[in-house]
Design brief:
By secondary structure, the protein is mainly alpha-helical. The chain folds into 2 domains: 199 residues, no CATH class; 75 residues, no CATH class. It is found in: Cell membrane; Membrane. It is a multi-pass membrane protein.
Length: 278
């Protein structure tokens, strides 16, 4: 299972990138320069994950050469990391600590890239399909693959955190499938709700999302998460994670999370009711 997870992650990453490229060409050929520019703009935040990948290579004692820098400039740095994980898994059989560290690095980086790059692209393509071009096949396929890739990035991160627990082996395929279905359904409904609200009420969607973001950010601050030590970075982390909580829940604290998940869904339900009332 440890080798299957990075292999599937790389496959979905390639499929998502190919569909995104097709969407870019689609808008360019049809002369829809506005959607073309916005789709290109969604690529820019992904360089944060590429930069962090280079910094982690340096921290691990690997001096990035020109070829490695070119790969990251082309946003192929995570492809290189997945390939390294697959080669290490073939050599060690998936039991070495170094392999687990490499898997953790690429899972965290992929999750960051998915939240910064795939999620905005998903929202944009979903809006095009719902409000602009309902018969658009290529934007629809790109949105679907982005949704699946984002959900899998969350599942693969959960899979890695499961491996970190003492005495825990890789979860069975049925558990992974249930997690994928849960993440896909949760993300899909949230994205669809926001897109439909934006179609009906235009810029009011930012007010609703802003209220949700503020509530989640203050809630995270009240939990006193110690994942970031410095006060300024801690506040920035809570603000960024609060924006993520508009769409999905990510557990950042050890221990049982049933109460936190219940609070998250309660606030999300209130947000939906508030949006309907508006």
């Amino acid at each position: 299972m440890r080798g299957a997870v990075p292999r599937l992650s790389l496959t979905l990453l390639a499929a998502e990138s190919g569909a995104r490229l097709c969407a870019i060409i689609h808008y360019l050929v049809r002369g829809q320069l506005g959607w073309f520019g916005l789709t290109i703009a969604c690529l820019v935040p992904g360089y944060a994950a590429q930069l962090l990948s280079i910094l982690w290579f340096r921290a691990d004692g690997h001096t990035p050469g020109c070829w490695l820098l070119v790969l990251h400039l082309l946003q192929l740095g995570l492809w290189k990391r997945y390939w390294d994980v697959l080669r290490a898994a073939a050599k060690t059989g998936g039991g070495a600590g170094e392999l687990l560290a490499q898997l953790g690095d690429v899972c965290v980086l992929r999750l960051l890239e998915a939240l910064l790059q795939t999620l905005p692209h998903l929202l944009l393509q979903a809006y095009v399909v719902v409000a602009v071009d309902p018969a658009g096949f290529i934007p629809g396929v790109s949105a679907g693959l982005s949704l699946l890739s984002l959900a899998w990035a969350l599942v693969s991160y959960s899979h890695f955190t499961f491996l970190l627990k003492p005495g825990h082996l890789s979860p069975p395929a049925a558990v992974i499938l249930c997690l994928l279905l849960w993440r896909t359904g949760m993300l899909g409904t949230r994205v669809l709700a926001l897109v439909l609200f934006a179609r009906l009420y235009s810029f009011w969607v930012f007010a609703v999302a802003g209220v949700h973001w503020l509530l989640m950010s203050f809630w995270l601050g009240a939990q006193q998460t110690d994942i970031v030590a410095q006060p300024c970075r801690w506040r920035l982390f809570n603000c960024l994670l609060g924006a993520v909580y508009i769409f999905c829940y990510i557990n950042v604290r050890p221990g049982p999370s049933k109460t936190r998940v219940a609070i998250f869904y309660a606030v999300s339900t209130w947000n939906v009711l508030y949006s309907t009332w508006m």
